[in-house]
Amino acid sequence: MRTLISTAFISLDGVVEAPGGEPGYRNSGWTFKDIEFVPEAFEIKGREQQEATAMLLGRTSYEAFSPVWPDMEEFAHYRTMPKYVVSTTLTDQDLVANWGRTTVLRSLDEVAALKETEGGPIIVHGSATLNHGLSDAGLIDRYHLLVYPLLLGAGKRLFSTTDKDTQKLKLVEHEVYSNGLQKQVLDVVR
């Protein structure tokens, strides 16, 4: 079974919305405003590209990333990696042509079936709504979090608010950086 890893920039109060400057959110671009850049804090981002063998995205994140990431040198490895987009509305005609093979999945059942295939880890970037569904369905195996020392208040959150049994996580890697960022790698305990 393949490992499904959710990776996120997240505020201390759980917000993941518009970290890179996406329009429409009051605090858009919060990952680089008034936060000193410390290169070593982002080592995990390079490692994710080397370790992942596929990328999974929700429709909104696909539509935000696909016009930009294919031409960015720092995301070069993602160009050739198979990508999967979970959407009930996206069609093959909506997919960009310069970002490698992309498959539209229509349900979380199709994600569960993808996890059963041969291959290495699948990485989920952004995709707040998709993360809620994946978590509620018990499909996430690991979280890679870069926690920012910020309270953003309103905004899309990484974790679902569904009333469910406690989900235990095991901290397997962590580090605190000089700018206050915290790396937390957590395995979901089954």
Automatic annotation (TrEMBL):
InterPro entries cross-referenced by the UniProt entry: DHFR-like_dom_sf, RibDG_C, Riboflavin_Biosynth_HTPR
PANTHER family linked to this entry: 2,5-DIAMINO-6-RIBOSYLAMINO-4(3H)-PYRIMIDINONE 5'-PHOSPHATE REDUCTASE (PTHR38011:SF11), DIHYDROFOLATE REDUCTASE FAMILY PROTEIN (AFU_ORTHOLOGUE AFUA_8G06820) (PTHR38011)
Domain Bacterial bifunctional deaminase-reductase C-terminal: 2-182
Highest taxon of the lineage: Bacteria
Protein's name according to its UniProt entry: Dihydrofolate reductase family protein
